[in-house]
Fold:
Amino acid sequence: MAKPILTIKKLTKKYGANVIFHDIDLVVNEGDTIVIIGPSGTGKSTLLRCINLLTCADEGQIWLDDLEITAKGCDEDRVRQHIGMVFQNFLLFNHLTALDNVMLGLTRVKHMKPDEARQKALRELERVGLSDRADHYPGQLSGGQQQRVAIARALAMDPRIMLFDEPTSALDPELIGEVLEVMRKLALEGMTMLVVTHEMGFAREVADRIVFLEKGSVVEEGSPDDLFYHPKNERTREFLWKITELYGKKEKEN
Amino acid sequence: MTGWLELFQRYLPEFIKGAGVTLELTAVGLSIGFFLGLALAVARVYAPRWLKALAIGYIELFRGTPLLVQLFLIYYGLPSMGVTLSQTLSAFLALGLNSAAYQAEYLRGAIQAIGTSQMTAGRAIGLSRWKTIWYIILPQALRLVIPAWSNEPISLLKTTAIVFLIAVQDLMAKAKRAAADTYDPVGSYLAVAVVYLVMVFIMNWGLKYLEKKTRIPGFEMESKKV
Structure:
């Protein structure tokens, strides 16, 4: 039986009276790529931030492997080392070169020796196809390259799971492909991934399961085939139709 | 004019001595002000509420009262509380404590401009809050602050002139002495004005160099001409 890496039970997040999402249940097994889709404002990003403990959930529990990370007294810095996160706006450290961006966590969090950290950082940059950009600063890189450095930075920590928060939404259309390609490769290598995205092509091709989130709850969950070709819920059908209409055109143009 | 040049030449060695004291006051005041100001700025943005309130109180107090009053309170007031400081030490302390309040505000602005997103990025790879501040936020904030902060050394250099009032032998004190000796106050003060101007000019040049030297490649701080 597949081993669950991430288990979410009855997770609820509110801002005052405003419920962002409620009673979310989700299991991510080792090696799985789960894609979360849904209209904007349905709490997809907040869900990822809760998993990474960047935001506190109000109710419910999250386990990383066998550790309940929502438990009181849980060392959040330690938990975050094991959860890689890639943001919509890359969020590279602007004053550091690509190499130093990747190295920082290794030397300052994992306390690796500089030489060892450098070797590992170079390997991670190679993995995302950017060894030749190691000494470039973020301001000297394209958006797509910046996002790949951000992926390398997260990978360098050897995370148990990678969270992607709309990693291609801030990119020009011609730069989306290179980032998706890296993510596709990661999925094939067996990385456990939880991806929020509007890239339906990626979802259909790479996802083991797709979760459709709307108005703060899971409407439908299943394999790409189920959701794209036999959606049970009317809302899923509508959303997918709308978004493939919109993005399908763009994909054809490319 | 030749008379003035003569005066300038005659008193130049004294002026240079005074300028040395002025530069020392500026350097020490700026350093105390920088480290204290940095601590205040970080406290103002990241500290728990009570410490934040303390930092704000300090800043408002020292920006809200004249430096001269602060200097007199330290030099004439502290002895009544059993603390007697020399003239120079009083001057260092007053300039440093006062400058800290201003530098704290420059630095706070820069720290806030770096924003919470860099904090998020740091925390996301497992850095603690303080490590993120130290390795991510401050290196960027300190670069960003330079253009605005450059006002402070220049302003402080000239502000040091008030310390002649507690008989510190700075450039201003030398001017006063020259004025009394030569019965030519205009000539004397004009002469030290020139010395101040030269010092500010050199300092300005140094600050521009610092700004250029610390610029992050590809990350333009000055907006390009549109």
The two ends of chain A are 40 Å apart (CA to CA). Chain A has a mean pLDDT of 92. Chain A touches chain B at residues 52, 54, 77-78, 80-81, 85, 87, 89, 91-95, 104-105, 108-109, 136-141, 153-154, 157 (CB under 8 Å). Residues 36 and 142 of chain A are 26 Å apart (CA to CA).
